[in-house]
Structure formats: C-alpha cells, structure tokens
Design a protein that fits this description.
Blueprint (H helix, E strand, L loop, with lengths): L10 H8 L3 H8 L7 H11 L3 H6 L9 H4 L8 H17 L6 H30 L1
Helix pairs in contact: 1-2, 6-7
Length: 131
C-alpha cells in the first residue's frame, strides 16, 4: 500500500510522512494500536485508500469514483430516458436475489432487448442530427 502511494518505505521516514512517531508506526503495523479517527482519515487520504479498508482490511481498498456511478441522461429524449430507466430497473431486480434459470434467461433477454433499443434509438437520433 505504501509503495502504491509513494510513501517512504522505512519506518522513520514513514512516521514523518504520516506525522506520527516511529514507535507509533511500528504499533500500527503490528496491530498494537489503532489510529484515532482523525488520524485514520488523514492517513487514508495520503495513502489513497478507504478508511474502512485501512483499519480492517475489509471493503473496497480504493474509494469509489462517484462520477463513474452517475450517468447524465438529461440530454436524452424522454423515450430514451424511459429505456435507460427500464434497463436500470431490470438490473436492480437481480441484485442480491436468487433467480432461477428461466427467470434469469427472461431477464437477460429483456436486458438485451432494452440495450439494443437504446443503441438503435441513439444511433437513429445521431443520424437525424446529421441530416
């Protein structure tokens, strides 16, 4: 983790980089001591990782880029927005649920149909815009 963040490799330099004492770094590494919440947040920011992962080793190692989670559909036509919303809803149906093979095949087909409809509609609008 420290190498990925270009943090110093030796405890003395790492301690200065993290703004703690060398014995504190040693205690962190040997799980004898946990940093305060403020210190953990500061360390996670410097190391470019999530606080939960830093403290527990659980969860996502790296913060999620929220811009990757958002999709601006405001410029799409109302029909295209409805298609996107239907696609998202069909994806939500399967999240965290057991689905039997017949349901899964049906959902997969619906997703493929929605994706193709969206792609065709966007292509059609792009062609109309050029004409």
């Amino acid at each position: 983790m420290c190498k990925e963040a270009n943090a110093p490799g030796r405890q003395k330099e790492l301690a200065a980089w993290l703004e703690v004492s060398q014995p504190t770094v040693s205690d962190y590494k040997n799980a004898k001591l946990l940093p305060s919440m403020d210190k953990a947040i500061q360390m996670a920011e410097k190391l470019g990782c999530n606080v939960e992962w830093l403290l527990t080793g659980r969860g996502e190692k790296y913060p999620v880029n929220k811009s990757e989670l958002l999709l601006d559909i405001s410029r799409l036509s109302e029909k295209d927005r409805d298609i996107v919303k239907s696609l998202v809803k069909s994806l939500e149906v399967t999240t965290g649920k057991e689905v039997d093979d017949a349901q899964g095949d049906s959902l997969d087909q619906n997703k493929q149909n929605l994706e193709m409809a969206l792609i065709n509609n966007i292509r059609s609008n792009a062609i109309d815009a050029r004409v």
